[in-house]
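TICKET: design request
STATUS: open
ATTACHED STRUCTURE:
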């Protein structure tokens, strides 16, 4: 039976990809952000996930403003990153897991979510950079199921709806009969606004509210409307919707393993968190022992 171990939550600013390509991780500007990752990698080394359910938003690579699904799920065997115009070489993208994708899709439709299924899908920096941070210097040794949430073109789904989507994904994972070790990622945020009169806006107080409640009381994050979240967090800070959905897939009780918060990275409040499920905590570092046996 599959095991859901927890989730990694992170900002996904394109400039992080530039820092990776330049080898700038230890420069004073970048070091506080990259220092968040050794504890994440230590946890991944203990838990050894096989599959990543990736909750993120597309920024115009696969979906543009003329066609913008509220929720879109990849059901492909392969995905790829392409030039997004940031001057970054495309990042490697691990293979898909179409059987699990379709199991999630079947469950979501049965739970009355009207989703878009994508058997051909590009995934942008919001998915590829977090994977590159988690597994630097190599292609992530996992299969992925990408779930794209519209955080770009209004009307956006509510935080309540995104949490419900994540919880429905969690039900699908609980029913999945495979033996994989599964984790989620939620990427984006935290507070930032890239344009308009409030360009440069960040809100550490709201970011702290989100991080404090993500593990123990994610429903607290759904008490704000999307427009209230935009006011609190900035027009792009609303990417917290991806974190909320990912959290929903982890069940009621999770434990915070690590947390980092740093301002600014490219006008963005940059945060990294790891939450671990009760089941993973109870199992201890059985995954590391499994790896040691295989070595
Ligand atoms: Fe973004």
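STATUS: resolved
RESOLUTION: sequence designed for all positions
ATTACHED SEQUENCE:
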């Amino acid at each position: 039976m599959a095991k859901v171990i927890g989730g990694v939550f992170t900002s996904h600013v394109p400039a992080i990809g530039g820092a990776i390509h330049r080898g700038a991780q230890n420069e004073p500007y970048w070091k506080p952000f990259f220092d968040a990752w050794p504890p994440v990698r230590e946890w991944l080394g203990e838990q050894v996930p096989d599959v990543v359910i990736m909750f993120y938003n597309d920024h115009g690579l696969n979906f543009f403003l003329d066609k913008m699904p509220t929720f879109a799920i990849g059901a492909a065997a392969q995905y790829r990153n392409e030039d997004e115009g940031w001057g970054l070489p495309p990042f490697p993208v691990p293979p898909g897991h179409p059987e699990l994708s379709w199991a999630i899709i079947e469950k979501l439709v049965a739970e009355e979510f009207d989703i878009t299924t994508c058997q051909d899908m590009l995934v942008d920096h919001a998915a590829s950079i977090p994977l590159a941070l988690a597994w630097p210097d190599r292609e992530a040794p996992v299969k992925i199921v990408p779930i794209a949430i519209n955080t770009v073109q209004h009307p956006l789904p509510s935080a309540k709806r995104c949490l419900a989507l994540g919880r429905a994904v969690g039900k699908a994972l609980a029913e999945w009969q495979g033996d994989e070790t599964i984790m989620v990622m939620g990427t984006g945020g935290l507070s930032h606004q890239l344009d308009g009169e409030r360009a440069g806006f960040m809100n550490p107080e709201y970011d702290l509210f989100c991080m404090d409640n993500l593990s123990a009381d994610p429903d607290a994050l759904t008490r704000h409307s999307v427009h209230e979240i935009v006011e609190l967090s900035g027009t792009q800070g609303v990417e917290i919707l991806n974190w909320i959905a990912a959290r929903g897939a982890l069940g009621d009780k999770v434990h915070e393993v690590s947390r980092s918060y740093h301002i600014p990275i490219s006008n963005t409040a940059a945060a990294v968190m790891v939450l671990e499920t009760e089941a993973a905590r109870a199992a201890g570092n059985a995954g590391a022992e499994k790896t040691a046996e295989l070595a």
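CLOSING REMARK: Residues 159-175 form the longest helix (17 residues). Confidence is low (pLDDT under 50) at residues 290-295.
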